[in-house]
Design goal:
alpha/beta; six-stranded parallel beta sheet; 40% helix; 356 residues; single chain
């Protein structure tokens, strides 16, 4: 089977969830002797790409043309291949079996104007020309079929993401400015309103606990919010850190705050569970599906009510009304169901089916 993997996402972001998924897929594909593999590579400054060692024999160096993310790749296809792009690209050639992965459908829910229109045009084009569509949760599949009724359900496969073994219970030294077990953790993007970052700050204020954030450097307005709500020396940001460092943060946190109103998957929940950190999440979209019984899942509500519910859950955790030990144990068991090897094996099976 000839498989082409398109690394365009590494040129679009320095780090991120899709980059992590793509890294884990390619690491396994490169080790799979059953494949006739080509990796389409682009100039980039991506953290995950820097970790990879791609042999010259399987690497196709590609130019990064203007608006490359929206353009069809430039190479001839003279025999059947499977083409899987990391971000909504397809090849309009009858010899190509395209695979598209839907990580989430946030542009439908949270974006507006020209960026939304352009993205949805590319997304619809990719779906129309794909022989198989991969959704990373049952929730995402339901959203996809609702938003794109022309997509045939039999062409859609749910394949869950995994969680790295780098996340585990550890006795490594705390790396924050705060005492172990004495801070709340917020992981991921903050700028989109649906992520509910401001709510996380409010919850930290109510709990009188510092907030540690992992993600892009703080913007001026975020600094101002944190200063006003939490005060000097009651928050800390970690940017461009390794999985090993993130694991330490999970291990020493009181809890992971995950108030997001929409996610295609919710990988930080599993990372926290592996690292014995209690996750408190809003019960929307894919989050209950991923969290299982190993997290505190708060019913979805409006912002004020949700902040009340999450604060109350944290207080119960703090005073022992919620059994933290049992919750952590359940989290560890839940996380065992999500592995990158399982993801890759299911993808390989799918590639094999559509290549015939």
């Amino acid at each position: 089977m000839k498989l082409y993997l398109d690394n365009i996402v590494f040129a679009l972001q320095p780090a991120g969830g899709i980059s992590t998924v793509w890294y884990e897929l390619e690491q396994r594909a490169m080790a799979d002797k059953r494949l006739d593999l080509t990796i389409m590579d682009y100039p980039c400054n991506n953290i995950q790409r820097k970790r990879m060692n791609v042999a010259d024999s399987i690497r196709m160096d590609c130019p990064l043309r203007k608006l490359e993310r929206y353009r069809e790749p430039l190479f001839e296809v003279n025999e059947p291949i499977v083409f899987h792009s990391s971000y909504f690209r397809v090849m309009q050639n009858p010899k190509v079996a395209n695979v598209t992965t839907i990580h989430d459908l946030t542009y439908h829910i949270c974006r507006h104007g020209l960026p939304k229109a352009v993205h949805l045009h590319q997304e619809e084009h990719a779906l129309r020309h794909s022989r198989a569509v991969v959704c990373i949760s049952q929730s995402t599949k339901r959203d996809l079929l609702r938003l794109y009724p022309s997509v045939r359900e039999e062409n859609v496969r749910v394949i869950y993401n995994g969680v790295s073994p780098l996340f585990h219970v550890s006795d490594e030294k705390n790396i924050t400015d705060f005492e172990s077990g004495g801070y709340l953790l917020f992981v991921g993007a903050r700028e989109a309103e649906y992520k509910n970052f401001v709510m996380a700050v409010e919850i930290a204020r109510r709990m009188k606990m510092p907030l540690v954030m992992v993600g892009a450097p703080l913007k001026k307005e975020e600094h101002e919010i944190l200063q006003d709500e939490l005060g000097e020396n009651h928050y800390q940001i970690f940017s461009h850190i390794s999985s090993e460092q993130l694991n330490v943060l999970y291990n020493h946190a009181f809890a992971l705050l995950y108030p997001s109103a929409y996610e295609g998957f919710g990988l930080p929940i599993l990372e926290a569970q592996k690292a014995d950190c209690v996750a408190v999440v809003q019960g929307v979209s894919s989050l209950p599906e991923v969290a299982g019984d190993g997290a505190i899942v708060v019913p979805p509500s409006n912002s004020l009510r949700l902040a009340d519910e999450m604060t109350d859950a944290l207080l119960q955790l703090k005073n022992g009304t919620i059994d933290a030990t049992a919750l952590r144990r359940a989290g560890q068991e839940n996380a065992k169901h999500f592995t990158w090897d399982a993801m890759y094996n299911q993808l390989y099976q799918l590639y094999n089916e559509i290549s015939r």
